[in-house]
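Final report, Chapter 2: Outcomes

The project's central promise was a pipeline that accepts a single protein chain and returns its three-dimensional structure in a standardized token representation, suitable for archiving and comparison. That pipeline is now operational. To close this chapter, we reproduce one record exactly as it appears in the project archive, with the input sequence first and the structure output second.
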Amino acid sequence: MRVLAAMSGGVDSAVAAARMVDAGHDVTGVHLALSSNPKSFRTGARGCCTLEDSRDARRAADVLNIPFYVWDLAERFRADVVDDFVAEYAAGRTPNPCLRCNEKIKFAAVLDRALALGFDAVCTGHYARVVDGPDGRELHRAVDPEKDQSYVLGVLTAAQLAHAMFPLGDTEKTDVRVEAERRGLAVARKPDSHDICFIADGDTAGFLRGQLGEAPGEVVDTSGEVVGSHDGTYGFTIGQRKGLRIGTPAPDGRPRYVLDISPVDRTVTVGAREELAVDELVGVSPRWCGPAPDGVVECAAQFRAHGEAVPARADVSDEILTVRFSVPQEGVAPGQAIVLYDGDRVIGSATIDRTSARAASPA
């Protein structure tokens, strides 16, 4: 097979490419230039879009003796990921840019170009598994639960999975570093990228302030009493506890959490933790990693990249996904992805549009 290996400059993608070479595939490495003005070095840049990363990817390709190219996707990345991220926060939602990047860039723009160039598959260093099932290829969790990235891949369709390869899905991260060292890859001890790749210093609120400007407003409690102020609703997410700038303590002295964000009137509502609990959500724009479910299905649902999947029932009707949790959940925010699992298998995902709590639900 002709395999295009997406090489970020990190240890995972380098070892993934190496395994494809060992498997006898005709491998070509490609580094995605996603920033129009990348930082020169990782110092102060916490993501995977620096010039240093590009050079590390090229050196790894040289060790593996495979062709290597850099594809400039900065304009597409800005439009589909960065601008979407800013717009979602401006609307009071909490997006996950990694999912959007996988959906729009790595397994849309890159995969489409790869297939047009005659490649059979795209390989990445994600920790997940693709398994042949009765209805085609299935997406499953990785063997290493601490590194599992199936959540951020839950946006992939069956057609995309047919051309996706994740060679690290059956491996522990510590073993990957040992393997990289054995192979003579200089990235063996390189720190993992973290946070949001296009926010170099990790200051999300500062980045959004620079994009959207200050939009001061009030922090209120559930009775409408003003208890603080803020510089922009984009600096908050549902369930947030720290950095609320509340000047008036709660009557019971307990911490308060963000319950609602209203960009229209620039209001952030806070309240007690138990008021965060929801037992139902509605998701839109569902994407299925195989055949779409028919009617109500018992499943597990995960709404954070590093959260746990919890028992739920999902009802699919007219491209609308309704998920009811067996036990009320906290911190479920519009804009997040809800990913459904059947055991280790990913069923599919949707974007959370709204949440609710039935009156009969326990606190």
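Archive annotation: The chain has seven helices and 17 strands.
This record, like all others produced under the grant, will remain available to the consortium after the project formally closes.
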